[in-house]
Write a structure and sequence with these properties.
This is PH domain-containing protein. This protein starts with a helix and ends with a helix. The protein has six domains: 4-148, PH-domain like, CATH 2.30.29.30; 201-333, Pleckstrin-homology domain (PH domain)/Phosphotyrosine-binding domain (PTB) (PH-domain like); 360-520, Roll (PH-domain like); 530-683, PH-domain like (Roll); 738-896, Gamma-adaptin ear (GAE) domain (Immunoglobulin-like, Sandwich); 901-1023, TATA-Binding Protein. Helices cover 18% and strands 34% of the residues.
Length: 1024
């Protein structure tokens, strides 16, 4: 692998000095946006040498200068773009091309050029950008790199930078809602998709079975034909061992065979299968999970199996492969072909699949077997001197394994000789490599000799197995120095494989076929887990042992299990993070050590303000981050295909977000930050100068600290939040029941039967209620009596009494309005409505439980609310009815003020100070000094009122003036979504200074919305 330190030092030196030189590349201008480059008036003939390499077209020179990139034609400069003006550099190394997109407003401005060696150009571009950044050139460099396909250059790309092939006809970038994806991930992780131990993959076992036996066999616990008596004996296990065998059905063997003991009960080809449905309820604890298959002529059968996930994968593979070119089964992930590929010109139809070589030759090139035909007596088995003496290897004829011969051509995609470094001397040795297409995906296996392959050997003699679904990228030119010509790298989440072909043509063929197989496995995910032992340094959950290597992170298909390592070296899961729970992760470097900082959502609505930040030290931080990124990309590919099973065609049920949009990075190093889900509040720019002692203990922030919030995290939710059914993560409110109107306890009144009014009543008491009505105050922000009451009487007069009961969760609220008849006569035409005014509330009023009330009766009506924007107005509740033919209407102030949509935000002292400074711009602050009228001007009185009535989370550890100052944070939740599809929240910070001797408070409120600052200050003032 070489010396990484010296390599990094050499690259730094190269980045420092490369700016002193210009570099010209011969290029062909392939495409451009309108007006980007002037039309060619005097086309220059393409030099013969360039034409042989790049083909014909408009010949230009691409010039990499110190601070600009230029296109030159006939010594005339066509285009000059400073590096600060470049938005993206998108690479397609499969055709040695690059798309340069300028950072301009309006329509996209770009040029696409083809060069002789795009890998060299990419490396130079990164060196120049890195050099400019380190030299402090003054240019603001915000450009990003992107890639088409699986090829990469010397620098490892992030999965989110790549545009992969599309297996579906649905446009890329469409995903189900986050909540649905999370439910699916948990169901898989706790059910049939529970990961196997590291290096214990069931997929590999099934794949080898397919390679050596031509299909897959699954143990059946019980099987029955629907509509027969056996259907009612589902709980009974078979007396004999029962098997369901699947194959492609093209090599003298039916596609599907079911046998009980030695008796074959079913035998059908795939043409006889009319349809099938998987019933996977393992996550729900049901044991009767399996597959239901309808056969032509045999009815519908249900097979109960233990390994339902891999059975599903196998059926998908054989079914889709048999039905091609018909569309694959919706939501399937196996046996699919590519529909479109992404190029620098956009998505295009996938090119024809490259054809592999099915001929077998010995190591000197003698033909042993052409496709389907054996040649004997002339080929040599590969041998060494020791092997010849010990094993007696000599020229001989070859007897094919009859069992394998029948299906060999159906599983082999390509085969041939490759050089692989190995042996005791670590020399380059020829190995016979075979690429297989199995029901579990593609696998590249190599053998000591072709005679050790399954076609000629009874036993499994694979020396190594490369699972192509684990590949992160492929380098078409090896990144290592001590390699033979025509070498390439296959990089997986576990290791890198460097292989060398016999010729350039052979290498290109291997690369085309391997990368196509990788693309076809885009949605196939490994079933085993990667385990990383880490040392927790920051743990807001308080469930892990800090500062010891006693925690393991198990990374697998659906998420990351955070486990404690017991004394017996057992791993006990403490909690599980789905990939939808990840907000961001960063690799940190300090004092020669590395760590991984992970920020995860803690609320069910994926609010960026509700998250925990963990810090784990591990020397495998880069590998750990790569595994997380890899599995997120896989997870999103599966979720993209999941949409094929949905009936909706619009985007309301879909999240319009692709892999490249779910992450941002600066691409200037392998430790850059990826942010999922939204804007990051924490400054990570100073990670590389973090000192060791900052990890060991909490220290007050200092002006010279470069990382204000690097190791501080929000606290765990309070017990009140955990017990609150409307807290984040709780169940949604229950719908109203039929007996809603029967609950009149909130009215607490006597019915006096007063005489009816002689004239119509149209009362508007909204303003009077908001100026000091005790009932309104008690239900709105609280008063001395009945503070923060969730139900109570809002209004009463001689005719009616109105009571409300309200609950809130995030941006949503549920208000039950109850109206009681206090008259001595019936009332009818009863209804309630809402005048939202300038509040911006979105609402839906249900029908009343009754529109006619006898004396003393009450009716209820349900009002659903959602706060869409900050507001300081008051909505009007309009209650109307008729009594003795006279219409009445009462307009009341609804105590649904904006403070109802506040949620406490737990902040560390450092984060509070940082955000307080951020909100210090003019107009964002509201300060007021007032007398304490509700109680003493001290913390004992003020602190609980802030926490209970305004839901402010008090931050301890900030300068508190000896106990005379309280600092806190809360957030206003809204239902308005941003461009990323996430609900917008308004952060609110307060500082309350208390003078107990003078009986006065001074309150300072800062938010990003000026009138919210004012409204919140007024609400708090009313409480104190």
């Amino acid at each position: 692998m070489g010396n990484r330190t010296s390599t990094a030092r050499d690259e730094a030196a190269a980045a420092q000095s490369i700016g002193h030189f210009d570099h010209n590349y011969d290029a062909i201008l392939i495409d451009q946006s309108a007006g980007m480059v002037e039309a060619c008036t005097d086309r220059k003939e393409v030099p013969a040498a360039v034409k042989r390499l790049l083909g014909d077209g408009r010949y230009v020179e691409l010039v990499m200068k110190f601070d600009t990139v230029q296109l030159v034609e006939n010594q005339k400069t066509l285009l000059t773009i400073p590096y600060s003006g470049v938005k993206t550099l998108e690479w397609d190394h499969s055709c040695s091309s690059v798309k340069i997109t300028a950072n301009t407003a309006g329509e996209e401005s770009f040029v696409v050029v083809k060069v002789g060696n795009s890998l060299e150009l990419e490396n130079e571009a990164k060196l120049r950008i890195r050099g400019l950044s380190r030299q402090g050139s003054g240019q603001q460099l915000n450009l990003t790199f992107a890639y088409c396909g699986t090829y990469a250059g010397p620098t490892k790309p992030k999965p989110f930078q790549r545009k992969r092939a599309n297996l579906s006809t649905r446009p890329q970038g469409k995903l189900p809602p986050l909540a649905l994806m999370r439910d699916l991930a948990i169901a898989r992780h706790t059910g049939s998709g529970a990961p196997t131990r590291a290096n214990g993959s069931k997929r590999v076992v099934h794949a080898l079975q397919h390679i050596h036996r031509g299909g897959n066999t699954f143990t059946v616990l019980h099987a029955y034909q629907k509509g027969t008596a056996a259907e009612h004996q589902q709980g009974e296990l078979h007396e004999f061992e029962s098997k369901l065998a699947l194959s492609c059905g093209t090599h003298e063997q039916p596609g599907l065979v079911y046998a009980e003991g030695q008796q074959v009960k079913l035998s059908h080809g795939w043409d006889d299968v009319q349809g099938w449905v998987v019933h996977d309820k393992v996550h729900a604890g049901e044991m009767n999970s399996g597959v239901e298959i309808t056969f032509r002529g045999s009815g519908t059968w249900f097979f109960i199996v233990l390994d339902v996930l891999h059975l599903k994968d196998a059926i998908e593979h054989f079914w889709n492969r048999h039905r091609a070119p018909q569309p694959p089964k919706p939501q399937s992930t196996h046996g699919r072909d590519i529909v479109t590929v992404t190029t620098l010109h956009g998505e295009i139809k996938a090119p024809p699949k490259p054809v592999g070589d099915l001929e077998i030759t010995d190591e000197v090139g003698t033909l042993v077997r052409s496709s389907g035909t054996a040649h004997g007596g002339v080929a040599k088995r590969k041998s060494t001197i020791i092997g010849s003496m010990v094993k007696g290897k000599k020229p001989t004829g070859w007897q094919e394994n009859e069992r394998v011969r029948k299906h060999w051509d159906s599983v082999v995609v390509h085969q041939g000789w490759l050089l692989k470094k190995g042996g005791l001397a670590k020399s380059w040795i020829k190995r016979y490599a075979v690429l297989y297409r199995t029901a579990m995906g593609h696998f590249l296996c190599y053998y000591a000799d072709f005679a050790k392959s399954p076609l000629y050997h009874e036993e499994e003699r694979e020396r190594r197995i490369i699972d192509l679904c684990k590949v992160t990228f492929v380098r078409p030119v090896s990144n290592h120095d001590d390699v033979p010509p025509n070498s390439f790298d296959i990089c997986t989440i576990e290791r890198e494989w460097t292989l060398s072909a016999e010729s350039k043509a052979s290498m290109q063929r291997w690369l085309q076929i391997v990368t196509r197989a990788i693309d076809e496995d885009t949605a196939i995910v490994p079933d085993d887990e990667l385990v990383f032992t880490v040392k927790p340094r920051v743990d807001p959950s308080q469930q892990l042992v800090k500062n010891e290597y006693s925690t393991a992170l198990k990374v697998s298909a659906s998420g990351v299990s955070v486990c404690a390592v017991t004394a017996a070296d057992e791993l006990v899961e403490r909690f599980f993070w789905c990939y939808t729970d990840f907000f961001k992760w960063s690799i940190l470097h300090h004092s020669g050590k590395t760590g991984l900082q992970v920020s995860v959502f803690t609320s069910a609505d994926f609010d960026v303000k509700d998250r925990h930040e963990f810090l784990f030290r591990t020397r495998d931080a880069v590998k750990l981050a790569t595994a997380i990124e890899f599995y997120i990309e896989k997870f999103m590919s599966i979720m993209h295909l999941y949409l094929e099973g949905t009936d909706n065609s619009g985007t309301s049920q879909e999240l319009n977000m692709g892999a490249s949009e779910m992450a941002t990075n600066n691409l200037l190093g392998e430790d850059d930050m990826l942010a999922l889900g939204g804007e990051d509040d924490d400054d990570q720019t100073g990670t590389k100068i973090t000192q060791e002692d900052q990890l060991l203990e909490k220290q007050p922030a200092s002006p010279t600290q470069g990382i204000l919030d690097l190791f501080t995290v929000p606290s765990a939710p309070s017990s009140s939040q955990v017990n609150d059914p409307f807290a984040p993560g709780a169940l949604p409110p229950k719908p109203p029941t039929d007996h809603l109107a029967d609950d009149v306890s909130a009215l607490s009144m006597e019915t006096g039967f007063p005489p009816a009014s002689a004239a119509p009543v149209r009362s508007d008491v909204v303003e009077e209620m908001t100026l000091g009505d005790a009932k309104f105050d008690a239900l709105a922000v609280g008063a001395a009596e009945g503070a923060n009451r969730m139900k109570g009487v809002l209004y009463e007069d001689p005719h009616v009494a109105v009571a409300i009961e309200h609950d809130y969760r995030g941006s949503e609220g549920r208000v039950t309005v109850r109206v009681a008849n206090k008259c001595s006569t019936p009332i009818d035409s009863l209804r309630s409505d809402l005048d939202a005014g300038e509040t911006g509330l979105r609402y839906e009023f249900g029908a009343p439980s009754s529109t006619s009330l006898q004396p003393g009766e009450a009716a209820a009506q349900l009002l659903m609310l959602e706060c869409m924007k900050p507001f300081d107005a008051v909505a009007a509740l309009v209650v109307s009815f008729r009594s003795q033919g006279v219409p009445y209407e009462v307009r009341l102030a609804l105590p649904c003020v904006f403070t109802k949509f506040l949620e406490p935000v737990q902040l560390s002292p450092n984060v509070f100070v940082q955000r307080w400074a951020t909100l210090g711009a003019p107009g964002l602050e509201h300060m007021v000094t007032f007398a304490a009228t509700a109680g003493s001007a001290n913390a004992a009185f003020a602190k609980p009122r802030l926490a209970d009535l305004v839901r402010v989370a008090v931050v301890d550890g900030v300068d508190d003036g000896g106990g005379s100052i309280l600092s806190g944070a809360t957030a206003l939740r809204t239902g308005t979504v941003n461009a990323g599809g996430e609900k917008i929240s308004v952060g609110c910070l307060i500082r309350l200074e208390m003078n107990e001797a003078a009986g006065a408070f001074r309150l300072t409120v800062r938010t990003a919305v000026p009138h919210v600052s004012t409204a919140l200050a007024e609400a708090i003032q009313k409480l104190l």
